Structure formats: structure tokens, C-alpha cells
Amino acid sequence: MIGFIIISALLLCGVITLLAILFMRPSEVPISDKSIDLSAVLPIQTITDSVIVNGSGDLTIGYRLFLPEVFTLSQEDAKYIHERLEGLFKMLPPATVVHQQCFYYVSQYKNNDFSVNPLKAESIKHFNNKQIINSYTNLYITFANTDLKKGVRKKASNTSLLKKLNYPFKQPYKNYEERLSEIEPKILNFENGLSSITQFEIKKMDSKDLNNAVFDYLNLSYAKPTKDATQETVSPIMV
């Protein structure tokens, strides 16, 4: 009798253990491609004619800045650049947003210069091909759509380039050509003033450059700048 009870208890324990193992098995999570259109996330409606057109009708142009190497500017040069930029920004119309964007990525130091100076030659030899953090800078000028009868922005973050708003339409803004022709003289005036600063060089970003900049901003992988974002995909975790 006692043996029967022991055997029954062992069988019951075995059944309970088996049920516990079955219920504790991790369930399989189905993985599916839940990619979304970036237009559903970003406030940018379209990039065309070297201009970013936002949903509210704001127009943004960009410039790639080729800045001097760190610690190479004198105090007088730095003060001169500051004064010139301050003067140029004051010439822009009210409600204009100025946005500087810096990207950092891993690169290698390259210097193939030859020097007869022993100290400089050893310095080049020591640092050449070493891994470094490189960077490049973009400067964006956003001209607000004054047709919306909004007041002057008190915060730069209110621009539709950086913040998605509830637009009453989904199609790209249609009347940007007329507004672009109106602000073209202001753009040329600003660009001429910016290019006259001899301490650095500039390049106006075309539509491809602007599209690549959007990809690099979303990617943020510290990889080298993309050359053609149309051939790339953004990881969903970055959106």
C-alpha cells in the first residue's frame, strides 16, 4: 500500500513538472517588416530645386561649411568671423531660423606632405593613418511662410523643419516656386556675404546633398557620410 502511494506521488510530481515545462516554454514572436514611410514621421514634404519644403510652406536652404582646423584661428580672425556672421544674420527677414548641424564620424588621419624639418616629419609619421574623429558642418536657413499670419517665433524649435505639426493636407506644398522667387535676392545677398569670409569656404547644398543630410541625421551611426541616400535604408530603430 505504501509503495503504491509513493509511486502515485512520483507520477503526480512528474505530470506537474511536465506541465510546468510546457507552460514555461518561450513563445515564438513573429517578426514582420513594419517599415513606414518617412513622410508619416518627418515634417519634410519634399526636397526639390535645392530647397527643403516643409508642410507649413517654410523653405530651407543649406550650405556645407569647410571650416578651418581646430586651434588654427587667431583671436582676431575668430572675432572677425563672429562679427561678419552676426551682420549677415541681422540682414535676414523676420521669423527666419538659422540652424547649424554638425556630424561626427570615425575616419583616418591622412597626411602625405614631405618636410625637411625633423620634428614635423616625425609628427606626420606618428599621426599618419591613425584613427580620428572627423566632422563636417551644415548651415541651414529656413524662411518662414508668412502667409500663415503667424507671429515671429520665439523659439527656433517651433520651425516645421524640426517639429511635426498637424497639417491640414498631406500633399507637398504647391506654391513654393513663387515664394522661392521672392526670397531669391535675399538668398543671393546672404550667400555672397557668407562666401566673402575668407577664413572658411562654403558650398551650397543641392537636392542630393540635402537628401543625404537627412539620411545621415536619421542614421547617426558614426559611419562616413553617405554619397547617395537613395541607395540606402534607415534602420527602423532610428525612426
UniProtKB/TrEMBL annotation:
The chain crosses the membrane at residues 6-24. The keyword Transmembrane applies. Keywords: Membrane, Transmembrane, Transmembrane helix. It comes from the Bacteria. InterPro entries: F-pilin_assembly_TraC, TraG_N_Bacteroidetes. Residues 34-82 form the TraG N-terminal Bacteroidetes domain. It holds the Pfam family DUF3875. This is DUF3875 domain-containing protein. It comes from Bacteroides ovatus.
